Q: What sequence folds into this?
């Protein structure tokens, strides 16, 4: 027996829909089996909250008098991209403030950047915009300095070309004698700690490993508001080797997402400062997975014991793009706080927040149960296993 | 019992062997977590002292009567709960586990009594949830 999106949405409208979180679904499938679970449950909600560097916001601030075609601009000293129409700008999450000392005194602190600008926007704070132009006949103004606020903007959209990685590396420091400062946090020497990112069984793409129900137009929880999947994300790679349950054994699928920043909240969008690395934006994402049939029930019943992440050395292998993973560890092992590597016990730390991931899955469940959120039926599925879409290294060609 | 304290020595007493007196006379174990002498020869020290309650009282009484300014259980670190996302990036850096996650909920909390003010959590926190307190 299978269900359609239309049937599930009808149940959401008439209040009879059965929604559970991915954690609850794991228990249900364990106790009752996938077949029974597929008959009882209509929707499984997922969640993740983690720094996601390929993120940003498009804003349109409206025209000044006289008009300006902004060609260079800074918001709270952070450069923003202006290679768009006159008063459209893109705030990239990893852009740092212009006077930031970066890593000149190592490791740099990277206190403020694009991710923080986006958080401040969402908090409704006033920000300072400084803009320059060369002046044209239709846009004569050459300079503009003003206070801006999200509530006065025509548009503010989150527009993230790569979020919600399906799985990710566990980072360790094997060879370096000093701490390494990476985008996965501080890695102490001699395999002292292992850092990971991801919410395991709660993770959106882990619950639909072949992207049967996630595609262009899927409605999602994004940054505390409502967003949409607009395409597969950059570096989307469905052909990564998988386990018997179909779970990729490393980074694989990704999502490109967008949504109205005006409806979002700083509880689920936070500026990030990674010491010695740079700035970023932590994004909260939750994807509802319709339990269309027994197969989807089995997928959403996945447990942390069945999800494996590669352990990668960030002292030599990762930066030099060489070598093989040191091994694979399950999310159950990672969650225990300690993993075994090369005969040693290694402390684990997460860069993603499990409590936030749970909060997102619960919030989304609440929205669906209360009829505030209907499922978006994808108009175009994401490329899945066997497609030509892949993520390969740069083909270097000397000039 | 264990007590952490911040000790400040004026330059007229920096030459006195006060800490060794604590150890020999009051049977106190001292873990010196930080010690500094300023250019004008004033000294400061952050210690963790272990011993019986009675001996600790006597030992700290001795320090005060010797002219040391003692701040027991000083607030060296400020942890702002509202800034914390409970990611847990600090936990593997925090050897005494003053910052730790609840095994059930994963929610991170800070136990001031366990903190040795090593400050390793500050660069590890991506969200600016921990900072040195003024004067630390």
A:
């Amino acid at each position: 027996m299978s269900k359609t999106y239309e049937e599930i949405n009808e149940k959401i409208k008439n209040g009879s829909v059965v929604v559970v979180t991915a954690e609850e679904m794991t228990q249900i499938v364990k106790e009752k089996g996938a077949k029974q679970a597929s008959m009882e449950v209509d929707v499984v909600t997922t969640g993740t909250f983690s720094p996601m560097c390929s993120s940003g916001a498009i804003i349109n601030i409206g025209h000044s008098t006289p008009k300006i075609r902004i060609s260079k601009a800074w918001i709270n000293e952070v450069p923003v991209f202006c290679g768009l129409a006159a008063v459209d700008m893109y705030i990239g999450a990893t852009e740092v403030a212009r006077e930031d000392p970066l890593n000149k005194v190592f490791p740099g602190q990277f206190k403020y950047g694009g991710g923080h600008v986006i958080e401040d926007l969402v908090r409704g704070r006033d920000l300072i915009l400084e803009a320059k132009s060369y002046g044209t006949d239709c846009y004569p103004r050459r300079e503009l300095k003003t206070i801006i606020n999200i509530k006065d903007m025509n548009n503010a959209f989150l527009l993230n070309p790569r979020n919600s990685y399906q799985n990710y590396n566990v980072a360790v420091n094997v060879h370096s004698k000093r701490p390494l400062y990476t985008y996965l946090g501080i890695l102490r020497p001699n395999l002292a700690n292992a850092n990971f990112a991801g919410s395991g069984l709660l993770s959106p793409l882990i619950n639909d490993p072949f992207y049967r129900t996630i595609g262009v137009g899927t409605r999602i929880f994004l940054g505390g508001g409502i967003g949409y999947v607009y395409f597969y994300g950059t570096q989307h790679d469905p052909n990564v080797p998988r386990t018997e349950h179909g779970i990729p054994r490393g980074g694989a699928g990704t999502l490109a997402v967008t949504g109205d920043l005006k409806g979002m909240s700083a509880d689920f969008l936070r500026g990030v400062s990674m010491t010695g690395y740079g700035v970023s934006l932590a994004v909260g994402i939750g994807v509802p997975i319709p339990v269309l049939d027994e197969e989807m029930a089995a997928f959403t019943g996945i447990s942390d014991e069945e999800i494996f992440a590669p352990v990668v050395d960030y002292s030599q292998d990762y930066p030099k793009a060489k070598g093989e993973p040191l091994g694979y560890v399950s999310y159950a092992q990672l969650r225990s706080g300690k993993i075994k590597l090369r005969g040693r016990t290694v402390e684990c730390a997460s860069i993603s927040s499990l409590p936030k991931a749970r909060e997102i899955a619960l919030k989304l469940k609440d929205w669906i149960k209360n009829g505030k959120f209907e499922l978006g039926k994808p108009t175009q599925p994401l490329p899945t296993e066997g497609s030509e879409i892949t993520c390969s290294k740069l083909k270097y060609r000397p000039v | 019992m264990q007590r952490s304290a911040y000790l400040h020595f004026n330059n007229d007493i920096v030459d006195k062997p006060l800490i060794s007196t604590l150890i020999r006379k009051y049977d106190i174990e001292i873990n010196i977590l930080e010690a500094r002498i300023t250019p004008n020869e004033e000294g400061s020290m952050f210690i963790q002292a272990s011993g019986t309650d009675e001996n600790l009282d006597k030992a700290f009484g001795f320090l005060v009567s010797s002219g040391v300014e003692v701040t027991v259980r000083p607030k060296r670190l400020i942890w702002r709960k509202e800034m914390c996302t409970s990611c847990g990036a600090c936990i593997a850096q925090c050897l005494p586990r003053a910052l730790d996650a609840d095994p059930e909920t994963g929610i991170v909390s800070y136990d001031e009594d366990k903190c040795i003010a090593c400050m390793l959590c500050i660069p590890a926190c991506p969200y600016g949830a921990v900072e040195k307190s003024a004067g630390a």
Observations:
- Chain A has two domains: 5-52+160-379, 56-158.
- The radius of gyration of chain A is 22 Å.
- Chain A has six helices and 26 strands.
- Residues 56-158 of chain A form one domain.
